[in-house]
């Protein structure tokens, strides 16, 4: 008997949807749509609240499983994005975008967009992690001079924060 630490009707419904995904294309479309609708500061809805991260992780696990089953070679797994692009080229593109950012708000948007677009299994971790490190390092350097002196309400406004209650 499989034990669950926590379960809910929402998780059970999504688990069934995820289990029915049979191809990389289906899982990729599901993950992209889910991210647009339920994740990040630009999400369309907050209806899933605390369930969104769990569901995202399960879709990603299914996508990674299908991708590894369908991939022909190690090169496809280690050097290409899940959509078949050269991971080094994609990484380079994101670093060039960061070169053009000179304020922390713009850099935060680039970091958020990068995570949403490239977080594994979308891109192999051996390419994702170094770019993530470079982007976040630049973000922290841009934030450093003023970040702690800006009042919280002003910071929220600058970043376009939507406050929610997760109770």
UniProtKB/TrEMBL annotation:
<dbReference type="InterPro" id="IPR004222">
    <property type="entry name" value="Me_mOase_g"/>
</dbReference>
<dbReference type="InterPro" id="IPR015952">
    <property type="entry name" value="Me_mOase_g_dom1"/>
</dbReference>
<dbReference type="Pfam" id="PF02964">
    <property type="entry name" value="MeMO_Hyd_G"/>
</dbReference>
<protein>
    <submittedName>
        <fullName>Uncharacterized protein</fullName>
    </submittedName>
</protein>
<dbReference type="InterPro" id="IPR015953">
    <property type="entry name" value="Me_mOase_g_dom2"/>
</dbReference>
<dbReference type="InterPro" id="IPR036123">
    <property type="entry name" value="Me_mOase_sf_g"/>
</dbReference>
């Amino acid at each position: 008997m499989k034990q669950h630490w926590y379960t809910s009707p929402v998780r059970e419904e999504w688990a069934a949807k995820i289990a029915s995904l049979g191809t990389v294309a289906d899982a990729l479309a599901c993950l992209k749509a889910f991210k647009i609708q339920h994740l990040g500061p630009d999400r369309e809805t907050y209806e899933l609240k605390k369930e969104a991260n769990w569901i995202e992780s399960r879709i990603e696990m299914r996508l990674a499983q299908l991708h590894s089953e369908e991939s022909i070679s190690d090169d496809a797994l280690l050097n290409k994005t899940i959509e078949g692009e050269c991971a080094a080229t994609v990484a380079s593109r994101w670093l060039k975008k960061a070169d053009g950012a000179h304020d922390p708000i713009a850099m935060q948007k680039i970091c958020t967009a990068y995570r949403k677009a490239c977080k594994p299994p979308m891109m192999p971790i051996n390419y994702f992690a170094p770019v993530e490190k470079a982007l976040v390092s630049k973000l922290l350097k841009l934030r450093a001079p003023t970040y702690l002196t800006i009042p919280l309400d002003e910071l929220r406004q600058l970043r376009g924060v939507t406050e929610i209650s997760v109770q």
